[in-house]
From TrEMBL:
Domain IgGFc-binding protein N-terminal stretches: 187-470
Coiled-coil parts of chain: 22-79
Pfam families: IgGFc_binding
Keywords, ordered alphabetically: Coiled coil
Species in which this protein is naturally found: Mytilus coruscus
Highest taxon above the source species: Eukaryota
Entries under InterPro entries matching the protein: IgGFc-bd_N (IPR035234)
UniProt protein name: IgGFc-binding protein N-terminal domain-containing protein
């Protein structure tokens, strides 16, 4: 049975009552011990033959009460241990939920010849994985840690409806990263488990450089169920989408749809009668310097968005453009490193800011936030989702892809950096930036990291955000390491 918030709350209330009872019993025990000592002192100061019979009777009763209390204390301690053990198991079961099944897609690639579709699967234990698609079907064993699976290039989408959804199921908990690797146009995304896919999304992409067709924006959709009615409301600042403002499409299970245009599709809204997955970005775009980099991210559903963000430091990139998209009317407070301003957004609108080092964003409503690091002479840009502080975790298992100079960036709310370990060792911190807003301290820091499977955790339970990214000559990639997804109501 899925663990619910109500069950967790009930267990916590039970624990609180047990601790209260234990405290009262301990207080009574202390009082009885004091009485016993006083009685013993009286007993010792009188001759044995004149000991008051009532004192002896009281002493016997006190000893019996002490024995009873000690027995109850032992039972309470056992109950505490059982309750903690039970609650911890429930928490473990809760965190395990939803990470056994995924549906993913590979959107259209720019370079048809040298781009490979790759799945990086982090196994939390040894187990078996089944991958089903129209171009790749396999049952395979996976090991704890890094597993790299190269698929057939037939997995890549083109515009239109296809049967190219990829269904992944596992006997053990897994984290999946979908990666397009190319000599100069790589990027990837953190896959969202099917359990947390939903029926309403707002889309982020980026301004199409000079409206070039190969830099086009795209939206990719994968359906999870039969007879799924998908409504697509594509938005462009320059006008209405050529096929009409609203499109209604019926899709079968694991069927896919890709739409693209040489104008920015940010702010488009996708809704459906049953849960779907949505991927968006640009095929071969750039931010400030003419080039070609693939932008892709799996969109968080609207019910997984947040309203408080720390934009992480991006090593090797002095500046980034951060895009904020709203699914409703909101007021946003932006706290940059050296200044503050505010702005308003209506449904489907976006606001871009230039970020360096640290930025804190507070909103009256939930936002979808994506970051696009600016190019340098050596490195291209990429697209990376920034999730909110209410979805931070205290323990991440993840994979760094091969053949990149890679980094991790961490964000936390707190007074100091403490308790961080990587692969069981103290974590080295390269750069640290802080910002205090309304008396609350926000921190971001970064560190270089090698390729392969890793684990970063906080040993004292501090929750933090974690992003993975890297560079190589005229290329780059970036995405979140993981997210504490919200459980659906009902």
């Amino acid at each position: 049975m899925p663990l619910t918030v109500a069950v967790l709350s009930a267990d916590l209330i039970l624990l609180k009552l047990i601790f209260t009872m234990f405290a009262l019993q301990q207080r009574k025990l202390d009082l009885l011990e004091t009485k016993l000592e006083n009685a013993q002192e009286i007993n010792d100061t009188k001759p044995q033959e004149t000991v008051n019979l009532k004192i002896l009777t009281d002493l016997a009763q006190l000893h019996q009460k002490l024995a009873d209390i000690e027995k109850r204390n032992e039972e309470t301690e056992n109950l505490n241990n059982l309750t903690f053990s039970h609650l911890q198991k429930q928490i473990d079961d809760f965190t395990e939920q939803g990470f056994y099944e995924y549906a993913v897609i590979f959107t259209e690639q720019y370079s048809k010849s040298d781009t490979e579709p790759v799945l990086y699967i982090h196994g939390h234990d040894n187990g078996n994985v089944k991958i089903e698609s129209n171009s790749f079907n396999s049952n395979m064993s996976i090991t704890k840690g890094k597993n790299k699976i190269i698929l057939n290039k037939e997995a890549f989408l083109r515009d239109g409806i296809k049967n190219k959804g990829i269904h992944i199921t596992s006997t053990v908990r897994i984290t999946v990263y979908v990666f397009q690797t190319s000599t100069s146009s790589s990027d990837g995304y953190l896959a969202i488990p099917i359990r947390y896919m939903s029926t309403k999304y707002i889309v982020s992409s980026f301004t199409v450089w000079e409206h070039r067709s190969h830099a086009k924006s795209f939206v990719g959709i994968v359906s999870l169920g039969v007879n799924t009615n998908v409504k697509v409301e594509l938005k462009m600042r320059q006008g209405t989408f050529i096929y009409g403002k609203i499109m209604n499409i019926y899709m079968s299970a694991f069927q896919t749809l890709q739409l693209s245009h040489n104008y920015d599709l940010s702010g488009s809204v996708i809704s459906s009668s049953k849960p779907i997955g949505v991927v968006s970005g640009n095929m071969c775009n750039c931010v400030t310097i003419s080039g070609c980099s693939h932008f892709t991210e799996m969109m968080l559903p609207i019910d997984q968005l947040d309203n408080e963000f720390i934009i992480p430091i991006i090593q090797t990139r002095q500046k980034s453009t951060v895009r904020h998209l709203s699914s409703g009317k909101v007021h946003i407070d932006v706290h940059l490193k050296d200044r503050h301003y505010d702005t308003n957004l209506n449904k489907g609108e976006h606001h871009d800011l230039i970020h360096n080092d640290i930025t804190v964003v507070l909103s009256t409503g939930n936002l979808l936030v994506t970051v696009f690091p600016h190019e340098t002479d050596r490195y291209d840009s990429y697209m990376m989702t920034v999730y909110g502080i209410n979805q931070y975790k205290f323990d991440y298992n993840f994979i760094i892809p091969s053949n990149f100079s890679s980094f991790v960036s961490i964000t936390i709310c707190g007074d100091a950096i403490r308790g961080f370990e990587i692969d069981g060792h103290g974590m080295k911190v390269d750069k640290v930036f802080e910002k205090t807003v309304l008396g609350k301290k926000y921190i971001t820091f970064s560190s270089s990291i090698t390729e392969g499977a890793h684990r970063i955790k906080n040993t004292i339970g501090i929750r933090f955000g974690l992003w993975l990214y890297g560079n190589r000559k005229i290329d780059g990639y970036g995405y979140p390491a993981g997210i504490a997804f919200r459980e659906k109501e009902g």
